[in-house]
Design brief:
14 helices, 6-stranded mixed beta sheet, Rossmann fold, alpha/beta, elongated
Length: about 425
């Protein structure tokens, strides 16, 4: 059973019906779950002990028993006290939005880094709930605080156990992060720009990634089908239809509204690939009724990660194949007025060639000429320059090689690190 509490107190840019649909899609993303029914529950106010009013709790209890429901998903925050009381009243397990997303991530993580990040996020979440859950008086008895009561001792023991696990996980993650940083540093020496695909979950990033690269990354009509970042080299089209420059395309984990802060923190290392990107392609599901709201959520998370206006961005309006003819004409007309927008269908391939041409144009930087003298001992640098195709002329003199170059500022900067 999926419930979406619609509270006036909770500020949101979403319609409750769309929020419920997304919650059902989240439930469908977890294997083994069958959604029997889902509904929006209007809440004039949040009840501290039970979340819902007494009448609604009884009504839902009867439906849970009649339909033999085993699990209730509440699409929103549920306090530990509310969770405990509802589970006791209904006799079923209850998950809130954060714990459901954590369950999905735990099921999907494949790489060592992904597994560690999910474990760390889950422990941080458990710890926050542990602190608030054990506050009733019978657990806190015991003098003036010099001698803790049994409940207080249990809290401290549980908290220490979680903290010890967190420390161990962070150490293991640091080793993985250092490896990723070394890989990033190695890529920085190779003069290939990085193009990152970002966007709301299920916007079609992996389908577009597969279409461009010919890779076989898991692409499903499912929330969070991709968790672990994937990178592939792609040769962009050049002038006259020939081969152009090579870039590295990166597929990243999708964003979602109300993404748990623990997950944003845990996945920061993975998402740092976005920070080091030379170009960000924001992929939007233009057929979704709340595509503008989803885009706003993505912009907020990118800002939270530290992405600034210094990194060029383009909007990829994906899933044109799902838009009806009238809306399609309107979208194409809008896109024609905005050079930063490219309408495509990753599924059919429509517009992908134009997208690659736009990426190529944005990455084609201004080139300047320069004279460089290399000693004979610097054969590695000479070979690098030739491999880059920036050498216009070369002469051998007594003091070494004299080269006339035509290169970009990026190539010049990377030449210094060779």
């Amino acid at each position: 059973m999926v419930l979406h509490p619609d509270t006036r107190a909770r500020a949101t840019r979403r319609l409750p019906e769309h929020g419920l649909a997304e919650a059902v899609a989240l439930a469908a993303a977890l294997p083994g779950l069958d959604v029997l029914w889902a509904e929006v529950v209007r809440l004039p106010r949040v009840h501290p002990g039970m979340l819902f009013g007494a009448g609604k709790v009884e009504d839902l209890k009867a439906r849970i028993k009649a339909d033999r429901v085993d699990l209730v998903l509440v699409d929103g925050p549920v306090s530990p006290v509310q969770q405990r009381n509802l589970e006791k009243e209904w006799g079923v397990k209850l998950l809130d939005r954060t714990s459901l997303i954590l369950e999905i991530f735990a099921d999907r993580a494949r790489t060592r880094e992904g597994v560690l990040q999910v474990e760390l996020a889950a422990l941080s979440y458990q710890r926050s709930r542990l602190v608030r859950a054990w506050t009733h008086l019978e657990r806190q008895r015991g003098g003036f605080g010099f001698v803790g009561g049994p409940g207080e001792t249990q809290i401290e023991a549980d908290r220490r156990a979680i903290d010890d696990q967190v420390i161990r996980l962070k150490r293991r993650l640091e080793r993985v992060v250092r490896t990723r940083e070394l890989q990033r540093a190695a890529r920085a020496k190779v003069p290939f720009p990085i193009v990152a695909l970002v966007g709301y979950t299920n916007a079609g990033k992996s389908t577009l990634f597969n279409r461009i690269t010919g890779a076989e990354v898991l692409a499903k009509d499912m929330l969070f089908a991709t968790l672990d970042p994937t990178m592939r080299g792609v040769v962009l089209p050049g002038e006259g239809g020939g081969a152009g420059r090579k870039v590295i395309l990166s597929d990243t984990v999708g964003f979602i509204s109300g993404l748990p802060t623990q997950l944003v923190a845990a996945f920061r290392a993975t998402l740092e690939e976005v920070l080091s990107a030379d170009l960000i392609c924001h992929v939007r599901d233009i057929s979704h009724p709340e595509t503008a709201e989803q885009a706003a959520d993505v912009a907020e998370i990118l800002a939270e990660l530290g992405v600034t206006a210094a990194t060029p961005q383009i909007e990829v309006w994906n899933k044109l194949d799902l838009v009806d003819a009238t809306a399609r004409e309107a979208l194409l007309a809008q896109a024609a007025q905005r050079p930063e927008v490219l309408p495509v269908s990753a599924l059919t391939g429509e517009g992908v060639a134009a997208l690659l041409a736009r990426i190529s144009g944005l990455l084609d930087e201004e080139r300047t000429e320069a004279q460089v003298v290399l000693a004979f001992a610097e054969g590695r640098k000479r070979a690098w320059l030739h491999a880059e195709g920036v050498v216009l002329e070369e002469a051998t003199e007594e003091d070494g090689w004299h080269l006339r170059l035509r290169w970009t500022a990026r190539q010049e900067a990377r030449f210094r690190t060779v």
